[in-house]
Amino acid sequence: MSPRVSVVIPAYRCEKTAEESIRSALRQTVRDIEVIAVDDGSDDGTPEILARLQKEDARVRVITLLKNGGVANARNCGVNDARAERIAFLDSDDLWEPDKLDRQLAVMEKTGAALVFTAAVCIDERGEPTGKIFHAPETVTANRLLSGNDIVTSTVLVQRTVYERHPMEHSHLHEDVISWYRILKDGAKAVGIDEPLARYRVTKSSKTGSKVRSAGMMWNTYRCLGIGPFRRILCFAGYLLHGVRRYWL
Question: In whole angstroms, what is the distance from residue 232 CA to residue 222 CA?
């Protein structure tokens, strides 16, 4: 019998945080899940941690990639090996509240949404709250997404068939924006739960943590999506305003 949800966790050089993240998935009130940890060519203690957790809990499966291929490829490898019809993404340094999946499954079944996301509390490198909450609007459209991404990947629950039509690509860009944009552009419905059911770690080395680098990546993400020059400028202005509201107001 297939699990209700497949949780996909890309893991690369995350020996300090991987176990806590995986255990937050295993503590879900929805017990009928599988956790697919994709070791993306780690050369630290990550493989040993993943192997131990796989022995401890039969719901954990480890996929080992011999060469680091980036977070988009790792997530896609996990999805390709998944057995459930619904996929949840969790980064190896983020955490979930115990009822996250339960709440999302209920909303997905009630609304018929293909993608359900939630708000997230921001935490620092030590796991302490920063005081910021990334709120989740009631819904997001493809056009709105271009002016600011409100969908935190570690909060997403998505129908597998929908994701497989528009998998992530280009890990050097905002691979999540590319996938969500194409999913929404294809007519799928996204619904947000504005309650912080996840804890999102923001570090200086992360894409989100480096604001200048993130902005440059967003500009190139527009180009990848085929957004024309004039519209690109308008969207980028909205993206900058969104960032000011999100991080400083």
Answer: 6
Do 129 and 196 have their domain in common? yes
Same domain, 115 and 177: yes
pLDDT tens digits, residue range 139-184? 999 999 999 999 999 999 999 999 999 999 999 999 999 999 999 9
Beta strands in 66-109 (DSSP E): 86-89, 95-96
Report CA Rg, the chain: 17
Query: What domain count does the chain have?
Result: 2
Q: What is the pLDDT of residues 35-93, one digit of tens each?
A: 999 999 999 999 999 999 999 999 999 999 999 999 999 999 999 999 999 999 999 99
Q: In 10 A of CB 149, how many CB atoms?
A: 24
Domain ends where: 78, 93, 108?
93
Cα 134–135–139 angle (5° rounding)? 130
- Torsion sign (Cα): 43, 44, 46, 51: positive
Full residue range of the structural domain in which residue 101 is found: 94-249
Pairwise CA distance, residues 211 & 220, whole Å = 14
